[in-house]
Amino acid sequence: MKNLTRQVRGQTQKELVRLFDRLAQRHSRWEVWADFVYMTAAALSNAVDKVHFEEREKDYLTIAGKYNKAELEAVAEMFALLGIGMDENPDQDFLGELFMSLDLGNQYKGQFFTPYSVCRMMAQITGTDDLKAKLDRQGWVSVNDCCCGAGALLVAFANECTRQGVNYQTSVLFVAQDIDLTAGLMCYIQLSLLGCPGYVVIGNTLTEPSLSLDGRGLIPQDKGNVWYMPFYFRDVWHWRRVWAQMDMLFKSENQEQSDPALPEPKPPPEPVVYNATKTGQLTLF
Question: Coil, strand or helix: which one is 153?
Fold first, then answer.
């Protein structure tokens, strides 16, 4: 079997691949990757999202039951290496590039992710020309990728915001959707580790597009397929959801007849307190 570590770049990715190869000795390569992605995403989600906690914790424990203690320690180390790699260089598609380097795209559904350099160019061309003007008018903006894959385009947009002097943690809502669970959770993990506020919807964009109860996408219609990023729960976004809820209630009261097809708005999730760095950015850890 060829040496997969030669296809990846950077010591962090090489170390992660060595652990991946160790796990793949007793399990299939795709199974190891999908399990690693789900367990990592569930660990992030369950720390803040109590609505979906029980179901995702049950799935997490079911997956963990397939691995022995040493293998679970390797999975945890892979998670740590992922965090280190994205901290060392936030301006990259860490998981997407690794996925393609390991040739997993050819093995599963023929997936091919857009190169990060292309995504970065697209973010520079289309995303930030009048961003500061929009923020002055609206207070915050949203960005959506309806076929997100591993999230390279949204990662590139977040990094372009940083280069433009925009704090995306307080000024940009990130919304993503993908039909494939593993791909969507790769996006969810990367955006979560970057401190992006928002959510990822798992579903077919053509037949079941992501919809929101409010007019600006703050409160999605959640059928159990929405993964909320940890920074979606921080105080500034919590209060924006509160105001959106109030606006929805006032509009409902003013209508002569309410639409029975629309679900009743749920109370917004409680805010979560995060630690601040010296530069004012917030961190998960």
Answer: helix
Cα 51 versus chain centre, distance: 17
Does the CA dihedral 99-103-107-113 come out positive or negative?
Answer: positive
pTM above 0.90, yes or no: no
For the chain, percent of residues with pLDDT exceeding 90: 71
Sign of CA dihedral 183, 31, 86, 240: positive
Structure tokens belonging to residue 16: 């992660």
Q: In what order do the strands lie in the sheet with 198-202?
A: 141-145, 172-178, 198-202, 226-228
E strand or H helix at 283, and its extent? strand 282-283
17-31, 131-145, 248-262: range with lowest mean pLDDT: 248-262
**What is the rounded CA–CA span in Å between residue 194 and residue 158?**
8
Q: Please report the beta strands in 93-171, taking only residues with DSSP state E, as ranges in sequence order.
A: 141-145
- In whole numbers, what is the pLDDT of the chain averaged over residues? 87
CB environment 230-245: b (16+ within 10 A), e (fewer): bbbbbeebeebbeebb
CA dihedral 260, 268, 49, 230 (to 10 degrees): 130
With 0-12 / 13-18 / 19 or more C-beta atoms within 10 angstroms meaning exposed / middle / buried, residue 130 is: exposed
> Can you tell me whether residue 276 is helix, strand or coil?
strand
Q: pLDDT of 253-281, one tens digit each? A: 666 455 555 555 555 566 665 566 655 55
Q: How many residues does the chain have?
A: 285
* Burial category of 160 from C-beta neighbours within 10 Å (exposed 0-12, middle 13-18, buried 19 and up): buried
pLDDT, tens digit, 9 for 90 and up, residues 208-256: 999 999 989 999 999 999 999 999 999 999 999 999 999 888 877 666 4
